[in-house]
Amino acid sequence: MTQGFQKVAAIRGMNDVLPGVGARWEQFEEIVRNWLHAYGYRNVRTPVLEHTRLFARGIGEVTDIVEKEMYTFTDALNGESLTMRPEMTAGIVRASIEHNLLYDRPHRVYSLGPVFRHERPQRGRYRQFHQIDVEALGFTGPDVDAELIVMLARLWKLLGLTDVRLELNSLGQPAERAAHRAALIEHLERHRDVLDEDGLRRMYSNPLRVLDTKNPAMQAMADSAPRLFDFLGDESRAHFDGVRQRLDDAGIGYRLNPRLVRGLDYYNLTVFEWVTDRLGAQGTVCGGGRYDGLIELLGGKPAPAVGFAIGMERLLDLWDQTAPPAAVPECEIYIVHQGDDAQRLAAKVGEQLRDAGLSVIVHAGAASFKSQFKRADASGARVAVILGADEVASATAGVKPLRGTADGAGQEQVPLAQLAQFVRQPQ
Ligand code: HAM
């Protein structure tokens, strides 16, 4: 007997996508790619691993993500601190600076892929999850801010989603935030007695985030806090008005949410989230906004930017509820065969049908016709192609529709030379 091996399970909060569900992901990704191309966005792919200081600087030292959610380790070979990306914006901005992407024109880019955050797993909150990240680099807005939001409304429509709501806010510019911050710290100092541990710890380092609390004992204090909106200057207000006008033009409703601050420090001016009540506690399917200071903060020539990321697992969950997934067939044509010669012919015929653009499974191994037909049926194929000794001798194939006809009905013998043409027509 071999030594016992304790089975290995996946890491908590990191999900396997199995065959049937994988097909659903592919359908979803196809809709998403077509949607992105409709607005001229082009694909980029940056590494999953980056230097830790990119995220510390980009996302902000005093954020939940950087303080406690990053998968960080020391590279054993050279002692560098590396981090699995907890989001994609910092990496895309790094790449755009490194390759001088914004040298002569702005860029609309997107990336799909896994990101990693060490959060407590629950429905809709995972440690490895996937984002559709969309960035418009080098645009001042507000037209582009609005276009991004309109674009998202189109995606919800494409997916048949009706109950995703938009929350909108403006965070103004750094100087306006500094004035607000000073007023806010004064307010927090006056209400020091109601602050919880997190609140006390952050009141000087990140007072805005203190208002983002879920602690009911702090709600009254948060509600009466000075509003950033009242500190915005003319330009910031004009930018925000520009976004709002364009949303009105497009007929997109939203809720102004002055408490919407987002969990990453790089934002200025427009910020937004799309939320739903249908996903339980993790109802935010998309978050984003403008981050005009990030490129410079990361060492690039100053340039404006705006973008968003969608949580793919959350959006898929919502889509599944709205449009329950139909099983996706494994192939169109399933070839069954009997005998060694027929098996070899089946392999050849399979290649010929694929040359004609069809999706084909050739039954692997040898088995009775009965069990091969069972497999053919389970595959979801619309047609079975049957090859036996007679077919080998006569250079023909049996063609049997598997869907929508009575059992055994409609089988025909077709010369191999005409097979591709024959099975291409829906039976
Ligand atoms: P974020 O709000 O941190 O923004 O994440 C975007 C979306 O990712 C969320 O709205 C949510 O749908 C999904 N998400 C976040 N955490 C989890 C999790 N643990 N499990 C499953 N889904 C999750 C960003 O990441 C920014 N980089 C967005 C951005 C791009 N801003 C400008 N450009």
TrEMBL record:
It is found in: Cytoplasm. GO terms for molecular function: ATP binding; histidine-tRNA ligase activity. Transmembrane segments: none annotated. PROSITE patterns: AA_TRNA_LIGASE_II. One of its GO terms (cellular component) is cytoplasm. Keywords: Aminoacyl-tRNA synthetase, ATP-binding, Cytoplasm, Ligase, Nucleotide-binding, Protein biosynthesis. One of its GO terms (biological process) is histidyl-tRNA aminoacylation. InterPro entries: aa-tRNA-synth_II, aa-tRNA-synth_II/BPL/LPL, Anticodon-bd, Anticodon-bd_dom_sf, His-tRNA-ligase, HisRS-like_core, HisRS/HisZ, HisRS_anticodon. Residues 25-329 form the Aminoacyl-transfer RNA synthetases class-II family profile domain. SUPFAM superfamilies: Class II aaRS ABD-related (SSF52954), Class II aaRS and biotin synthetases (SSF55681). It catalyses: tRNA(His) + L-histidine + ATP = L-histidyl-tRNA(His) + AMP + diphosphate + H(+). The keyword Aminoacyl-tRNA synthetase applies. The keyword Protein biosynthesis applies. L-histidine binds at residues 87-89, 117, 131, 135, 262, 266-267. Pfam families: HGTP_anticodon, tRNA-synt_His. Its EC number is 6.1.1.21. Homodimer. Belongs to the class-II aminoacyl-tRNA synthetase family. This is Histidine--tRNA ligase.
